[in-house]
Amino acid sequence: MNPRLPLLAALLLPGMLFADAADLAGKPDDWFRSHEGRSTLSIVLSWQSPQGSWPKNKDTTTKPYDGKRDKLEGTFDNKATTGELRLLAHAFKSTGDDIYRDAFLKGFEHILEAQYPNGGWPQFHPPGEGYHRHITFNDGTMVRLLELLHDSQGYDFIDNARKRKATEAFDRGIACILKCQIVIDGRPTVWCAQHDEVTFAPAKARAYELPSLSGGESAGILHFLMSLEKPSPEVIRAVKAGVAWFDSAKLTGIRFERSGGDGRVISDPSAKPLWARFYDLETGKPFFCDRDGVKKATVAEIGKERRKGYAWYGNWGDSVQREYGKWDYR
Q1: H-helix or E-strand containing 278?
Q2: In the chain, how many domains are there?
Q3: Among 2, 61, 158, 314, which residue has the fewest nearby CB atoms (within 10 Å)?
Q4: Does the pLDDT value for residue 173 go beyond 80?
Q5: 77-92, pLDDT tens digit by residue?
Q6: Distance CA 45, CA 48 (A)
Q7: CA torsion through residues 299, 304, 310, 314, sign
């Protein structure tokens, strides 16, 4: 299973993309043995936290970390940690250098340790207080962790005991996803960007990220479920329900345009369907929020800073429908 980077990039804030360790993981073997490759890997290792994870929103591939190691704050959010681990796995395969294997295993063990008994993951471990404790689907976090656990079965340097733990963690993660699927009036729909780590209920994160039906994160979850080799009847039902929700939630006759440092909705009868990032749990209608946490019916009602600084609309449902059209279990 390959990480779905285009979908994830559409969820990140404009200007928040950095040199990506996951992309470098696809380099040929010779690159890992070259001076450039070795230098890059040394930089990546300098950013690994004492717990085994990497920080988010940092360029971990071109400039070494020069601060105090105990100040490094690793996370699983915003593409952090899984990309670096994939890079290190390829580095060990290509070079046989134990330093890459050992760093990978430290991060791998950290991921296994961070999983809740119910199968979910917080944004980072240990999670502390606040919304970081929630089961985190935001920006593809939990899906990326599960994809790495799945792919780790093909890493020859991981022993059987760790692989068994990874398989068990993977299975718990699938069960958690199914428990988190939001049911409204007896009908399964999709997911919130984060769910309560105890009750599985949709949960609030930042002030403008209220409990909701999430068009963005739910698309990534459905892609992941459709990638499973032998989906259970429960997974098949969850996918069918999610796809049906996307069909019902599409927005037509509009397009979202960014220009002049702002974003706005424009009427366009010929535009392809769009989906909102957040839908109200009671009305099923899109909503938008500023940093005051007050729901608004249109993106024009929130401030310019949030209009331009967040992915309020996307074509997420298009990719879901295309994948579902090819899915053997529909």
Answers
A1: strand 278-279
A2: 2
A3: 2
A4: yes
A5: 989 999 999 999 999 9
A6: 5
A7: positive
Same structural domain, 78 and 189: no
Q: What letter would DSSP give residue 136?
A: E
- Residue 277 is part of a domain; what is its CATH number? 1.50.10.20
In the predicted model, what is the mean pLDDT of residues 216-231? Answer: 97
Q: Which residue is it, tokens 């609030």?
A: 204
Domain boundary among the residues 156, 180, 204 is at: 180
As given in the structure block, the two tokens for residue 91 are 């580095």
Asked whether the whole model's pTM tops 0.85, one would answer yes
- Host domain of residue 82: 1-180
Tokens 């037509």 appear where?
252
Q: Tally helices (H) and strands (E) across the chain.
A: 12, 12
pLDDT at 128: 84
Q: Is 132 exposed, middle or buried (0-12, 13-18, 19+ CB in 10 A)?
A: middle
Q: Which of 277, 248, 244, 242 is nearest to 263 (CA)?
A: 277
Say whether 45 sits in a helix, a strand or coil: helix
The 10s digit of each residue's pLDDT in 291-301 is 999 999 999 99
275-276 vs 313-314, strand pairing mode: antiparallel
State both tokens at 14. Answer: 């404009």
Instruction: Using CB atoms within 10 Å of the CB of residue 301, give its burial: 0 to 12 exposed, 13 to 18 middle, 19+ buried.
Output: middle
Is pLDDT of 14 > 50? no
Residues classed as catalytic: 78, 206
Strand partners, 195: 135, 202
289: three-class secondary structure by DSSP: strand
Question: Do 176 and 186 sit in the same domain of this protein?
Answer: no
- Paired tokens of 28: 């040929």
Q: What is the pLDDT of residues 234-288, one digit of tens each?
A: 999 999 999 999 999 999 999 999 888 899 999 999 999 999 999 999 999 999 9
